[in-house]
Design goal:
By secondary structure, this protein is an alpha+beta fold. Helices cover 22% and strands 39% of the residues. The chain contains 5 helices and 15 strands.
Amino acid sequence: MNRFPLLLALLLASSPSAQPAPAPTPAALTQERELTRRALSSDYGSINVEAQILVGQRPSKPLGPLPSVPASRLLGSIIRTSGGPEFPNTQSLYFDSSASPAQVQAALQTQLKALGWTAFAFGPFGPFEQGGFQAEEQPAALAYYRLEQQVSFDAQLRRVGAVTRVTLNLNQNPNLREQLQFQDMRRAELPTNLPALRPPSGASVQPKGTGGGGGSWNSSASIQSSSTAAQLLGAYGTQLQAAGWTLLTKSVTGKTVTSVWRFSDVDQREVTGVLTLQTQAPGRYAAQLASLTFRN
């Protein structure tokens, strides 16, 4: 008797693919929820933080007015509360959106302004962000505050496949006034007046360095992309406009495309900006961003 077919049949019958996993019992779901709450909470020392998980729900009493995420599905919320100032209360909301990160970001910015939120002067990455060309794309982010309520808001946006994952965070911030004062003091110590430029879609960027002083700065990079120099100039130009730069002129000279800009620095001095891309080989470019401050 050939036992191989019988053994094969027994193996197939006992394999995981032949037996679908049983549905979790109510007791298992309760234990899973308890474990998740414990992982999100803290009982270290005298700090006692409790976490509440709301599946498919917003907080019933948000710490501040919340914007709507366009074309989105709400996954749920996590609320963390504590009994003391050591760990301020926080609320996090999680969404999936079919809109692009740029569309979500624009919609949130419009709503937040209408709801009375104020954008942090240094943006979501604080006063320590290095300006000029950046090497890798980071998640889009927003940072706002309401001083009287001592509440801060931030949003994180990241494209994953066909979905934009959106996280909205509300934080009680009892030190908000001091934080704003600290940022004001840091204005005079900013390393550069150049905004941080993220890689355009599909581009690989290798920064070559940023240098300067006295209000005049320069950043250079090597770029590989299937886009044309003019398309890259336009993509970077969109970011410069978002940073408050005003376009004056565009020009093309041989393999070089250039745009000239004007903006005001933190001391309200008028500064000239120049963005240049030069084609070195098909799909390869050299890029420079410069700011020029003329002193009396």
